[in-house]
């Protein structure tokens, strides 16, 4: 199979490419990535010598960049994905997540190939009780979530109108190696290592269902091979945690791994002005993928957190190059204003 993976230089995409090629050594994976601020070819530097891997720098919003690529199936990870940035400027999210997805759907329709669209549980909005199922209404609250919900609806329309062979997956919050430092887990880890304030929105009691990135990648691969066309699959680890609970667990583990004082690290926590439209709780019901495909997460939260912290400790060069550049300016402009309050 020739598999086109869009957004393959990003956090989840790069982890998926590594997993897919290890699980299917006879596949050829084509990685199409625009290399925006969060795309990093260092995530895949060990793939450079593989004859089964090809990188193409390109934008899914550019039809010409897509026309010359041969493939049998598309796994679409390409997305603008950070809620905070979508609040500052929604336009890149609409362009990539909506228009870009439409371009991919058109090519899939014309060629008659399979399309797997990787979405998010944020399209469901927030809930105080119960769990989101695949048939739950879409009630997105941030510009990012709205752009993903829009792309989901376009995929559904192509399935219904053109009988396109396609599947949508909606996953809970990922964490693990190669995650860009603006996201919660690496932000906490790197600020703790560097003894910087750790900003926590509101009261820190916003709840997320956390999943280790490799478990997500395995689920996506299982859906690709065994999922029912036209369907939707929620992917979650049944691992709800309040943000402040997850943060304190990370700091406890960092204190042990780096032989530091846990109370001093806890003292870095700084409660800041809450994010606009901050969803209170996400909770995925993954019963369908468990029942129909037999998928289960393999990495516990405790093990996953330890593996993630150890990776960032051991890969200082990777994140130092990132936080010395554009990210620093973003951090100061976004979190800095909230730290002042």
Task: Describe the 3D structure.
The chain is an alpha/beta fold. The protein has a domain at about 1-175 and about 210-235: 3-Layer(aba) Sandwich (Rossmann fold). About 45% of the residues lie in helices and about 15% in strands. The chain contains 13 helices and twelve strands. It has helices spanning about 10-25, 65, 85-90, 90-110, 145-160, 185-195, 215-225, 245-255, 260-265, 285-295, 300-315, 315-325, 325-340, and strands at about 1-5, 30-35, 55, 75, 115-120, 165-170, 175, 200, 205-210, 230-235, 240, 270. The strands form three sheets. The protein has a seven-stranded parallel β-sheet, with helices on both faces. Strands 7-9-11 form a three-stranded mixed β-sheet. Strands 8-12 form a two-stranded parallel sheet. The termini are far apart.
Just give the CATH class of the domain at 2-176 and 211-235: Alpha Beta
Provide the succession of SSEs.
Answer: EHEEHEHHEHEEHEEHEEHHEHHHH
Overall morphology:
globular
Overall strand count: 12
Low-confidence stretches: none
Classify the beta-strand content into a percent band: 15-25%
Mean pLDDT rating:
94
Cross-sheet strand order for the largest sheet: 3-2-1-4-5-6-10
Largest sheet: 7 strands, parallel
CATH structural architecture of the domain at 2-176 and 211-235:
3-Layer(aba) Sandwich
Helix/strand-derived category reads: alpha/beta
Q: N- to C-terminal separation?
A: 53 Å
